[in-house]
Amino acid sequence: MRKMININRNWLFWKDTADVYADSNPTKIDLPHTWNAVDGQDGGNDYFRGSCLYKKTVKKSDLPQADEYYLEIRGANSSADAYVNGKHLCHHDGGYSTWRVNFTEVLADENEIAIVVDNSPNETVYPQFADFTFYGGLYRDVNIIAVAKTHFDLDYFGGSGIAITPVVDGKNAVVDVEVWVKDLGENDEIAYTVYEKNGDEVAKITTKDTKVSFTIENVHLWHGRKDPYLYLAKVEIVRAGEVIDNVSTRFGCRSFVIDPDKGFILNGEEYPLRGVSRHQDRWGIGNALLPEHHKEDMDFIMEVGATTIRLAHYQHDQYFYDLCDEVGMVVWAEIPYISKHLTGGRANTISQMKELITQNYNHASIVVWGLSNEITMNGEGDPDLISNHEELNALVHEMDKTRLTTVACVSMCSMDAKYLQIPDVVSYNHYFGWYGGNTSMNGPWFDEFHAKHPNIPIGCSEYGCEALNWHTSTPKQGDYTEEYQAYYHEELIKQLFTRKYLWATHVWNMFDFGADSRAEGGETGQNHKGLMTFDRKYKKDSFYAYKAWLSDEPFVHLCGKRYVDRVEDTTKITVYSNQPEVELFVNGVSLGKKTAEDHFFYFDVPNVGESTLVAKAGELTDESKLRKVDEMNPDYVLKEKGAVLNWFDVEMPKGRYSLNDTFEDILKTFRGKMWAIGLGLSIKKKMKANKKSGGNAPSVGDAMDMKAVMKMIGGFTVLRMTSMMGMLNVAITKEELLKMNKKLNEIRKPKGVK
User: Fold this and answer.
1) What pLDDT is stored for residue 698 in this prediction?
2) Whether the Cβ atoms of residue 26 and residue 55 lie closer than 8 Å to each other
3) If exposure means fewest CB atoms within 10 Å of the residue's CB, which of 150, 410, 443, 706 is most exposed?
4) Can you give the pLDDT at residue 706?
5) Between β-strands 242-251 and 231-239, what pairing exists: parallel, antiparallel or unpaired?
């Protein structure tokens, strides 16, 4: 019988070396581990990317007796080399999947295991360009698996050696089971058994065949969050009555259709997919998560009421996929083919897709395999990019006949892009109302796509806006306040959730996450679009906007708990609830009851002295404080940490343009257009210089839909746009900004432009 021995404890770690013979000044660590837990989250885009060494000694006497021994690495980002007793055994490219190596031939009484992990920039292993930190390290479990010579295959793309394919047929399900076995003996048999969730045996077949088929009569369907029922399949290799090896996996029986008009249909029932995306990192921990972190993340996602998760932008921990199966989440799983097509990276997209599918084939929760994300940032017409997608799409359908393929398109990608014709379904990443444009543009854009391509199922794979602990009663796009984020999501919920044809919508993101190149919102090194903070300690108001629409758990939530001090005499107070009626009390006095079909309740509240607010919905209550002040609390006002220039430092002569004006307004004048052209040429020059010097940021290609690009950037102020150039490794100095502002001050605004 196989035995798995976890070897996470007591490793030695050397930073910035690939020398497997290093023996001085190591750091003692336990796995999981990343070397970028701090510098990958503090901003500056300067986190260490290179090679690091992990070593551990294992005694043979501490291992169970077996014919063969495998080293199993469940996550080493992003490339790794494995050595045992100085012998190089394996190289692996791809930081998010399981891989194994047989080290039986070099096994000794004492065994030094050395793993060199490397997250250096390169042109062949994805991801290389993306808006998140590529944490280096052995950040998941490392195990030794001891098996008999005859065993279920451990070598094929990190899989378990068993694949379950259930197909629902009326009230029954036909379940095909296939296994891969090494060195099966002439007299060996394979025993297949299927169990109910309670342990009762459904059926059993003993044969020499590696493929069998069961029929489960009156099958209990896996039906998302409503009923995530799972069966168990157990397979054993039996020799003369003795079990030589065994594998088992849970599986669910379900059918689904993605209809271009009706959206997602599960087991014949319309089942709207409204949910979130998730990254696998945390504040101060990076990607080296423990099971309790994954479980807590799932609990929060369940609380918000989501029915779907997009697991971006790579393969996640097996434990999290297991949780998705157990709770009934419908999952989009994808590889990190992202942002920039690498001409030397095709082989890596193929190998990562094979690993993703092989290792996750049995998860009932997964319904689509994601081919790529925002891959057309450098242009959508590249023949090699299109060919790469065609090969990936064919591979997926060859490996998995039961699921569909999808892509997440960058907003500026043309609706008629050739590569959109390749996958089965399509989704777009749109940020109208945050990255330019306005919130009202989102729904109509999807209506236009749906009318133009009525046979292509369309979804929204990303949308969101950033919020930190900044506050205002007059929220505006780009202010990073919790109030604007709440307004943005109220508007997007009403637009997206009422369009049944959208096959899935995924908020970007459930949690704030590490993006070391970011310098926005006053806290560098993070993307703050989460419905919750990076440390999972605070649920932003927008969290409850989704809970009001999606959750059946009765609740009432008073918004603005972190926004106590207010200057206005009458202030707007928002309450979110999934109950039909809400009553608001100020110091015990009722302001009346309100109903709201959209679950968003608004009250005008007199702001005098200090007040205690209580929202009531039936027996449910929530409380917050309010205090009248003469001047805005400076703690609520955005201060860009390390900003080259803050908005309040900008000279703004009356009737003249400045860095605080939007491109949309500046382009209304001829001189403004000329100035913008000059700015574009200057930035392009900086990006070219950055590329020559080895910079690693993607550029926006000429082949994009420039009309869409202009829609996006039109709502940006010049200062906000230039502050975001850091994500492209383009530095703009204070002197350059002041010079830009001086030029803008010379341009008179036309009448009607404030």
Assistant:
1) 41
2) yes
3) 706
4) 46
5) antiparallel
The answer to whether the beta carbons of residues 693 and 731 sit under 8 Å apart is no
pTM assigned to the model: 0.92
Residues 495/255, Cβ–Cβ less than 8 Å: no
Nearest to 480 by CA among 520, 510, 519: 520
Tokens of 364: 């009932």
Smallest CA-to-CA distance from 310 within 289, 296, 330 is with 330
SS3 381: coil
Per DSSP bridges, beta strands 330-334 and 366-373 are parallel
Distance CA 104, CA 577 (A): 60
Which domains does the chain possess? Answer: 3-147 (2.60.120.260), 162-251 (2.60.40.10), 262-553 (3.20.20.80), 570-635 (2.60.40.10), 649-745 (no CATH)
Three-state SS string over 321-345 comes to HHHHHHHCCEEEEECCCECECCCCC
Instruction: Work out the angle at residue 437's Cα, subtended by the Cα atoms of residues 432 and 443, and round it to the nearest 5 degrees.
Output: 45
What is the H or E stretch that residue 578 is in?
A: none
Cα separation, 376 vs 340, in Å, equals 7
pLDDT of residue 685: 78
pLDDT, tens digit, 9 for 90 and up, residues 353-393: 999 999 999 999 999 999 999 999 888 899 999 999 999 99
What is the spatial distance between Cα 81 and Cα 103, in angstroms, rounded to a whole number?
13
* pLDDT score of 726: 62
- Maximum CA pair distance of the chain? 93
Sequence-separated (6 or more) residues with CB below 8 Å from residue 371: 334, 335, 337, 353, 389, 392, 393, 396, 405, 406, 407, 422, 423
d(CA 751, CA 695): 43
**659 contacts: CB under 8 Å, gap ≥ 6:** 645, 647, 650, 717, 718, 719, 722, 737, 740, 741, 744
- Cα separations (Å) of 549 from 429, 441, 536? 22, 21, 21
Question: Cα dist. 398→344, 373, 466 in Å?
Answer: 24, 21, 40
Rounded to the nearest angstrom, the gap between the alpha carbon of residue 455 and the centroid of all alpha carbons in its chain is 27
- At 225, the amino acid letter reads R
Q: How far apart are CA 560 and CA 541, in angstroms?
A: 7
CB 672 within 8 A of CB 395: no
Each residue of 653-697: pLDDT tens digit? Answer: 999 999 888 888 898 898 988 888 888 888 777 767 665 554 444
Alpha-helical (H) ranges within 284-433 are 291-304, 318-327, 346-360, 383-399
Cα torsion 412, 316, 306, 338 to 10°: value is: 0
User: Cα–Cα distance between 357 and 398 in angstroms, integer?
Assistant: 11
Count of beta carbons in the 10 Å neighbourhood of residue 568: 11
Whether residue 95 contacts residue 134, with contact meaning beta carbons closer than 8 Å, is answered with: yes
CB-CB contact of 37 with 135 (8 Å) = yes
The tokens of 669 are what? 């004048």
Q: 613 pairs with which residues across the strands?
A: 586, 624
Check if the beta carbon of residue 161 is closer than 8 Å to that of residue 179: yes
**Rounded to an integer, what distance in angstroms lies between the CA atom of residue 185 and that of residue 179?**
15
Catalytic residue check, 374: yes
Which is the catalytic residue, given 374, 462, 482, 483?
Answer: 374
CA distance 754 to 749: 8
The stretches in the chain having pLDDT less than 70 are: 641-644, 647-648, 687, 689-715, 724, 726-729, 754
Q: E strands of 196-262, at which residues?
A: 201-207, 211-216, 222-223, 227-228, 231-239, 242-251, 256-259
